[in-house]
């Protein structure tokens, strides 16, 4: 090979390598890490002005693009409290004003930290992804502090409260509502089963996370409601000591709650090689979902003359309509002891039809759900794999 040809070949190789590196860098800088898990908090921040917020949004608050994940992660570090947890109902994509930054930074010691509205466990996973993408140490440290917050907040029986440190209200209960408990469990599942975004964790923290996961799983099984001798599903919240179904807000009674139970069962169904207790738990919940179906009913929303309630401007109402073509649905609550569809209101009165609920609560809360169908759709494959001789839907 001549010198000229050799030099040309070297140039060509270097050009290709350089171009590949440049494209990789460009991709890394433009790829986004989803902020979808923070949507609930974001909607609350912009939609409900709360005088108790650390900061409230300014008009036309600017936002970072999802591809600006280090800036979003910096916001998370700013909002992270001294105990490693986060407050709820802020937009992590917000480009904060200097005054907002100063206010948030000055309140690190305020430990009003929570798992409600998909808070804290979502921040931990986001920071893990950012550290994996950047290898910037501050994101790793913030992520580890968030994991430790989750471990610190766990009860000895395996459950988690809605807020930690504990507060003197219903938030002390073990909380499945709004995905809090299962959000934590799904995060720990990623750590225990070696999600690559957590490959940086040392063995000590990973071991603690596994212990926490196992305790959390035991607590799930221990909380499953046995009603009239029959194993059914779960409540939105359970007493932190007795594990019995418990009241939360005034319109959230102790009951069998099909919406929250769906995520519990889906989690149990993804466990590989489940033991007999887990199999029995899933089978019982599936049978409960099948038996608690409501047929020939459709829920429709319609406009009304707007009026001001104590809580918001009410512009729409909802009603249950008879419809023979409707797909099965479920009420959010079923009464303990009778299994009747159950409703309530801000005065904690137990009601037995949607029409009895006040307009503000009737239209402002999800009293019906279709989510158990997700479990029923997945059940045939799960049953064939783990309980081939016991199809509870054929009994």
Automatic annotation (TrEMBL):
Output the superkingdom of the source species. Bacteria
The alphabetical list of record keywords is: Lyase, Signal
| A GO molecular function held by the record | pectate lyase activity
Q: Does the keyword Protein transport apply?
A: no
Q: What is its EC number?
A: 4.2.2.2
Q: What class of enzyme is it?
A: lyase
Q: Which SUPFAM superfamilies match?
A: Family 10 polysaccharide lyase
Q: Reply yes or no: does the keyword rRNA processing apply.
A: no
Please state the span of the N-terminal signal peptide per the UniProt entry: 1-26
The protein in question is named Pectate lyase
Q: Which organism is it from?
A: Flavobacterium plantiphilum
Q: Which gene encodes it?
A: pelA
